[in-house]
Amino acid sequence: MTGTMQMVLRSRSLVLGAALSLVFFGAAVVSFLWVPYDVTLMGIANKIKPPSAAHWLGTDQFGRDILSMIMVGARTSIAVAVLAVGIGMGFGVPLGLWAAARRGSLLDELIMRGNDLVFAFPALLIAVMITAILGPSATNAIIAIGVFNIPVFARLSRSGALSLWQRDFILAARVAGKGSARISWEHILPNILNLLIVQGTIQFSLGILAEAGLSYVGLGAQPPVPSWGRMLAESQTFITFAPHMALFPGFAILLTVLGLNLMGDGLRDLLDPKLRRGRE
User: Fold this and answer.
1) 151-183: per-residue pLDDT in tens?
2) Which of 61, 53, 28 is nearest to 231 (CA)?
């Protein structure tokens, strides 16, 4: 345990990434219990105020406190990203393992061509199609981003599983009479879990970025639910004389995505012995 902690602390990207991520995760958790001001409270007398002792990050065009909006907006971004990654892993990993177990079969071909089809449509375009039918909302943003994540995890799971199916311990399991499903669950999945954790961290950061992008164009969380992307969109008109309205939510997105990517890079080095030895 001590050796593992020493390796974690030696990874600068992991430590820095975890610290940055913890700030925004902490802000999201704290916002459930306390925020400086009610995000639904408008104060026209205080609109477009610069940062001050009363409003640390200033106010927007409706007089709402930007710090409070960012804290509550963190909840929205994190919730959308977590659920979207959950959808991607929940459907993509079983499909990838199934395709690897049936390598070269019609089923394998159908799964991989289906992945190619989904990859042909970006998350934003999928969101446009979904919202054209169901209407814009955070739920539909989750579905759109989640659907886009499915082929990512399916491809990763399949490639990782294919490299293991010819290993001796898998052959021994087959000789022992275990079926493909049981081998995939008991032997393949635990051995590719490190790949899935790292990719999950990266997709989580991309999920936050995608949610901000969808909200920016009006396809994500709808008012009065705060969203970092919509805060950026609403600040465009005022950016010349109230740049703080765009800077702070922009920095929130930038630092959160940067932190998660650094943490993913650090986890990759920590969980992959080959990379770890190469950097030592």
Assistant:
1) 999 999 999 999 898 888 888 988 888 888 899
2) 61
Which is it for the CA torsion 203, 207, 208, 210, positive or negative?
positive
* Joined tokens for residue 94: 């079983």
What single DSSP character describes residue 218? T
Pick from 124, 77, 15, 110: which is nearest to 253 by CA?
77
The token pair at 126 is: 């999928």
Is this structure's pTM higher than 0.90?
no
Single out the residue of 150, 147, 113, 152 nearest to residue 127, CA to CA: 147
Q: How far apart are CA 68 and CA 64, in angstroms?
A: 8
At 72, list the tokens: 């509550």
Domains of the chain in start order, with CATH, are: 2-279 (1.10.3720.10)
Closest CA to 275 of 13, 1, 92: 13
- Cβ pair 68, 36 in contact under 8 A: yes
Residue 261 CA to residue 273 CA, distance in Å, equals 19
